[in-house]
Amino acid sequence: MWLEDFLPAKIPDARIMTFGYNSAFAFARSMAGLDDFALDLLERIRIVRGTEAKDRPLIFICHSLGGIVVKKVCIL
Description:
The protein is mostly helical. The chain has one domain. The protein has helices at 2-10, 23-28, 32-49, 65-75. Helix 3 (32-49) packs across helix 4 (65-75). The longest helix is centred in the middle third of the chain and has 18 residues, at 32-49. The chain starts with a helix and ends with a helix. The mean pLDDT is 83.
């Protein structure tokens, strides 16, 4: 995984996390699946970050439908 292999050299204090989803499920259920994925991502971020990391910046690297999911996260 290139994120885990190369990003720590450039950003040594970064916490690298990945988020996956079944994109076929999203297209089968139309846009309702995007809401589910966005809410799931928000909850996972809340759990991992807790309160002590609230001021740390978040950087999302997205592709295709993942970018749309992150846009939905920003809206929510």
